[in-house]
């Protein structure tokens, strides 16, 4: 390397001072490398003994741990033997658990001795626990139930403890059942059974959880459910037989609804607890008969029995409600009511017939309240689904049949036949309002009790939509009836003056028409006169529908008459003014927009008034233009000059 440096210095022709420094650095580097080699050799010589020392330290630590375990084992064994000598079984059982948890790596004779003594303690614990069960000694049972865990007999302990709880509960069930034999109430009997079960779980869950954990609580809940299944099913079965012997009545429906409600409340309670426990212990598998979601029976006998009772309840509820409504509707005598009201000039919006109708919907609401209170979503949707047909076929249709089929006579003086029509229309409109109110109420009740999420809510919404269809049907019945009234008495009779009216007028006539209107004002006055009784006695909402239909039919009648007339420019101006006047006057009679009913007439008046073809083209290009090309030509020809 020194030679290479010399060669490099010569080639580069570096100064002598730099060459001297380079030689010094080379020697320094060689010295450092030599020292590093010495240090490495020293470390190699030391590492061997250090590794041996570390191994010895670890072995000493293990030996010390074994000695500590041996000392602890010996100490606990002495305590264990002493506890056994003085017959302190609970403490001896606890020490068994502690001694068994001490790791023993060295076989010693005391281990065999411990196993023999442990078996002795196990037998004594089982015996004492059994005596407690036979004597129903709650203190002994609760004290010894937890000892099974220390003796690694947890499965046997929890089974025997839960068995004791269930036997005790069944004793309560039998006492409750005996009260039923003494003319007790089925509802009260079931309530007591459910309450006793809930009280038992809530009273024992802390003890079970302390000794056996959440798994123990789940097993307790499963056992309680099975116990209730046997007794409650028997009670409900007896009740179902009793119901068959009784006459159908709404009171009986309410009784069944309450029994279903109490059972559903109990089912909801235990399933809620089951879900909570399953989440806590994270179950991966269960017996096939239990659900992984709740840890409880998939198909309990109680649920099946309640479904049977619910089916019977749904049938009876519907039949009783149908009979009650039919009886009320049969008492709605519109003719008799109108005769009395016509004589006394009473309102046709209130009175006995409307009270009967209100009672019908009151019965429907009460029926819904009963089924909502049952907390059974299947029964609720089934009953609500029946309401649609019930309202449509047993309330709306019978009322509609009371509508007179005779032609309407437009008469200024009050008419009894019109009174009957008005009452029927008011009744159907009252139905429409009641249906709307029911739908709103049902939605609020369902949301509050069951919530509006999930598959069940979809079924409910279908039922609600079916009930809403009855509201639509009521609106259609009103529209059909009003259309029949208007079309059965043609409005052409109001256009006598219009037929003889000449629109080829002079300037003087045009000026005179401004003061003495020959058509529009008289027409509106006549219409207001014949609609006076309707306006006074028909509810505002329905009267507005009547005015709308009158406006539609009147516009059609005027359009037909227009085709036989001729117009000069002043006549066209007068006709346009007449149409505006009619629209304005009729609009004052209703809050419902009416201008669209006269859209064609307005366009006809504009077409007749147009000055030239350019203006006609401009009018007909409008996207809102309703007249077709053939009609444009026809009505334009009515303009003579």
UniProtKB/TrEMBL annotation:
The keyword Signal does not apply. Its main location: Golgi. GO terms for biological process: protein transport. GO terms for cellular component: Golgi membrane. It is a peripheral membrane protein. Keywords: Golgi apparatus, Membrane, Protein transport, Transport. Residues 114-404 form the COG4 transport protein middle alpha-helical bundle domain. It comes from the Eukaryota. It is found in: Golgi apparatus membrane. Gene3D superfamilies: 1.20.58.1970. Belongs to the COG4 family. This is Conserved oligomeric Golgi complex subunit 4. It comes from Stentor coeruleus. The lineage of its organism: Eukaryota, Sar, Alveolata, Ciliophora, Postciliodesmatophora.
